[in-house]
Structures are given as structure tokens and as C-alpha cells.
Amino acid sequence: MSLLAQKNPEAPAGHTDSAAAFVPDQSRAERTTSYAVADFAVPSGREEEWRFTPVDRLQALFAETAGTALRREEFLPDGVTVSTLSREQWQGSGAPKPADRAAVVAAAQAESVTVLDIPAEAELPEPVRVVLTGDGGLAHGHTVIRVGQFARATVVLRHQGDAQYSELLSVVVGDGADVTVVTVQEWADSALHLGQHDVVVGRDAKVRHIAVTLGGGIVRLNTNASYAGPGGSFEALGVYFADAGQHQEHRLFVDHEAPHCRSNVEYKGALQGDSAHTVWVGDVLIRASAEGTDTYELNRNLILTDGARADSVPNLEIETGEIAGAGHASATGRFDDQQLFYLQARGIDEDTARRLVVRGFFASIVGRIGVPEIEDHLMEAIDRELEATA
What we know:
Elements: E1 15-16, H1 59-62, E2 71-75, E3 81-85, H2 87-91, H3 101-109, E4 113-118, E5 128-147, E6 152-173, E7 178-187, E8 192-201, E9 206-213, E10 218-227, E11 233-242, E12 247-256, E13 262-271, E14 277-286, E15 294-303, E16 309-318, E17 325-333, H4 337-344, H5 350-366, H6 372-389
Parallel strand pairs: 1-16, 4-5, 5-6, 6-7, 6-8, 7-9, 8-10, 9-11, 10-12, 11-13, 12-14, 13-15, 14-16, 15-17
Antiparallel strand pairs: 2-5, 3-4
Helix pairs in contact: 4-5, 5-6
């Protein structure tokens, strides 16, 4: 059977939720992927995958213009190595192809492909840390993370400074491995960041991809997951906080082709300030061959002030009835007055009560990152955002 799941048209104020608008124009299985820039037209904003995005501000990232690389600092545990590949070597490696104009331009214009290798059976005692800093110009990046069989590792990628940046990131995980990839966006307000993150989950492997977006004028991340064999598990977690004038967009595509695999997607966002805009699109495709699939996706948005807008679009496409489970949920709203009343009735002032509610809203995801210093830093950053609201 085939099912394109649509949303309830009766949604809270501030949330765009027209069921007719959310019917995809085609199956995700039919969308273009290619190494050739010419196979992707410059987006006009009328395309399904670009209709929420302010493409008029992104023309520099769609043009075939040479840029630079972001300044890069690496902190590598013993055994982890960094090397480079040519574009030709990368294209022959079997890594996923670019899936939109920005990603293919990033691959074509990046000076080289940076490869980070985590050896088989490694158990890293501390995370791999990569800090990428922009200096204000046009930049392209292309990184491949290869995780060997049965390895256990955490990789943290932090983005900061100012840039017009497009990137292609591929995470290829060997059989039986257990890896967490955390990508943090703390850009200056003028920064632009378009990214395609591809995750290939090996047989019986476990992968978590965690996206945290707390800054940038426009940040748009596409996270795509696929399975190289049965028994794989993919978890996608996300936290985002948009201020006035910021556009933050997170799109996910989980392609279940191998049987008996699992996926779980959970993203939470908060918005404040005039014209703050967030977009979350979650696409799950369960192909006919993917019997025994178990999948669920969840998005929650908390609107803190007037003038902010959240779009939330879950899509579920199923080609077989032989599955363990599939579902989704989405909600957008304002503060829970009962929670605020409960806290204020116990002597907590309103501003502090609001902060506690928002911290609790995010804590269930931030607490699962697994890197204490990152968790503490993010909660402090969220507190700073809330101070601006107060």
C-alpha cells in the first residue's frame, strides 16, 4: 500500500498547517541525486523542497563560485586520523550523492574532501571535536566521517563566526558500530548556512545524529539516513531556538529499504521575536522491501512572542503493510498557562517560571547528547536567549 500522511488542518495560531499544501509533489524515492551541478536548477522558491526557504538571500550559495574553507581546529583522540580524497575518489567510494543545488555546489567547489577515520573496534574515551569558524566570506566544505565496524565514538562539529557556507557531510558507519554525531550551529546573526548531512547505517549499527541550531540569519540542514543492511537503528534529535529575523529550517529524510530497521526522530524548537521563522519537515519512506520497520517522528514548537511562525510538516510514505510500527506527531503552541500558574503559586516570579518551562521543554533532548560540557554549554546558551525575551 502507499500512504502519504497529511496533517490536521485545525492547528494552533502561528502554525501553518494546510493539509492541501502538505501533499508532496512526488515520492521521495523519485527526487534527483547527482554529482553534476547542471542537474539542479537554481531554486526559485516555488519548488516543494524550497517553498519555505528565503532563496532570494541565498544566491551566492547556488552560484558556481569558488570560495574558501572555514578555519578548522581538530581535537582527535588516539587512533583517529584525518586525510583527504579527490572528488574522483569520493565519487567512486559509494557515498551518497548530493540531493540539491547547494550540496552539489559545495561538493564541486570544496578544495578537497576531508576524511575523518575512526578505526574498527575503537572505543574512544572522549569525543572527536572539530571547530569550524567563518571569517565572513563565501565558504564551501565537504567532509566524510568513516566509522569502522564495532567502533564506539562521539563526534562533535561546532560552527561559529560569520560566513556564507554550504557543506556536504557524509557519515558512513560500519556494521555493529555505535556512533553519535552532534552538529552545533552558533553562527553570528548575519551568517548563512546550507548543509546536507547523509548518514549510512551499517548492519546492526546504531547511529544518533543530533542537530543544535542557536544562531545564524538562515540555517537550513537536510539530514538523510539510509541503511546498508538489516538491524540498523537511526535516531535523529534536534534543538533549535530562533530569534527575530532568523530562519531555521531542518529537513529529514529516512529511507527504509533494508528490513528490520528502526528510526526515531524527535525535534524541539522555540521562537521569539518578529518574523522569527522555523521549518521542520520530516519525510519517512518505507519501501516494499523494508519489512519489520519500526519508525516514529515527533516535532514540538514553543512560540514565546507574537510575530513568530513555525511550520511543521511530517510525511509518511509506506509501500508495505508488513511493518512493526509507523507514526508521527506534531504540535505548535504557546506557554502552558497551567504550568506557569503552578510555579507562580509556589512563589516563583513569572520570568523565572517561563525560563524553567522552556528549560524543561529542551532538557529531554539536550540531556541525551551524552557530552556533559556540550549539554551545559547549550543550556547556558538557551538561558541567554531567554534573557533577551525577558
